[in-house]
Structure formats: structure tokens, C-alpha cells
Amino acid sequence: MAGAVRRYGIPAGLALILGLAALGGYLYWEHAQKLAAGERSERTVLALEKAAAGPASATGALGELDNLAKDGSAGSKAVAALAAAAIRQQAGKAEDAAKAYAAIAADSTVPQAYRDFATLREIAARYDSLPPQQIVDRLKPLAVPGNAWFGSAGEMTGLAYLKMNKPDMAGPLFAAVAKDKTVPESLRARARLIAGQLGFEAGDAPGPATGDTPAKTQ
């Protein structure tokens, strides 16, 4: 063992020093990345607050979000790009917004949840101009129970089926949306109404909880 130490002591010591230096460098890089991510998140929040202040501030917020969409992690860039697209849509630039959503949806480096949401928003922005069959095909992966966007995707798909004169396809889908308790109640109520009109059972409308007093009619 003494001979091994004498023989390999210096190389082992150098390896240890290099290893510690590499570890230190990695920890510093990781710390810098976290700081940068925190800064980008703060800038995104400030830009959204600026946009919410009114149309006069929206232009500056849009420029900031466009810059944030060019740098950072795939997730942070996607959030900034989605926010910028939403501002454009609110400003009446629906086609520009739709193109931005389409670019996000097509980017394989973006987390799938953001890509799915971008697909949903793109189709909503172009809904009246898209062929119904294309809407059905694009939303098929999302319009299934258990998907995070099932409610909105199911509603748009069901309406596309109705445009195609396929109530037998639309009815069960609206009924499934109406029965899904993870879907917002306002959307479930719309789906329940349409499903009932098409002759499909969609469950009973929710009543007031025990001890609640129904709101008075004004």
C-alpha cells in the first residue's frame, strides 16, 4: 500500500483536484442558471403586469416578452412566447397570434404540455377558417378524457362534428365532457345542454351543496 501511495499519490492528488474543480465549476454553473431563470421569471411577470395595465403599456410588454422568448430554457421561452401571442390576439392580430402558437406547437424542444396548449390556442384563433375535419384531426390527441385540455378540445371537436352533420359523433363527446368533474363547470354546463339537445344523457345539473341557500332571482 505504501508503494502504491508513493507511485500513484501525485496522479491521484491531481485527479482529486481536477474532480473538485469540475464539481465546483458545475455547482457555480448550476447556481448561475438558477439565478438567470429567476431573473427571467421576474421579467416575465413584470411584462405581464405591464400588459395588464392597458393598451398603452402592451407594446412595451410585447417587446420584452419577444426578447425573453429568444433566450433561456425551452420552458421559459415557451411561456414568454405564449404570453406574447396572447397579447397579439387581444390586440386583434389573430393571424399573427395563430402563427406564433403554431410555431410553439411545432417546436420539439418545447415541453409537450406547452405544445398542446399552443395547438389549442392556434385552433381557437383560426376556428372559423379551418375545415371541420382538420379541427377534428388536430385535436384528436387532446379530446380524450384524462387529458389536461379535454374540456376545451372536446367542445371544439364536438362543434366541428356538428358542422360536419355528425351528431352521432358529437353527442357522446359532449356528454363525456359534461360528466368529467375535472372540467370547469361553465364548460360542463354548455356541454350538458348540447348533449341533451342531441338526445344523449349527460348527467344531472349540479344543485346547491347542503346548507347552501339558492341565490335569489333578481
Structure description:
The structure is a single chain. This protein has 218 residues and is mostly helical. It folds into two domains: 91 residues; 75 residues, no CATH class. The protein has nine helices and no strands. Helix 1 packs antiparallel against helix 2. The longest helix is centred in the first third of the chain and has 51 residues. The N and C termini lie far apart (93 Å). The C terminus is likely disordered.
Q: What's the short version?
A:
The protein is mainly α. It contains 9 helices and no strands.
Task: Please describe the structure with a list of short key phrases separated by commas or semicolons.
218 residues, mainly alpha, 2 domains, 9 helices, 0% strand, elongated
Largest sheet: none
Given helix and strand content, the structural type is mainly alpha
Mean pLDDT: 77
Number of domains: 2
Termini separation (Å)?
Answer: 93 Å
Order of helices and strands: HHHHHHHHH
List the helices and strands and how they pair.
Elements: H1 2-52, H2 55-68, H3 74-90, H4 94-106, H5 112-125, H6 132-139, H7 150-163, H8 167-179, H9 185-197
Helix pairs in contact: 1-2, 1-3, 2-3, 3-4, 4-5, 6-7, 7-8, 8-9
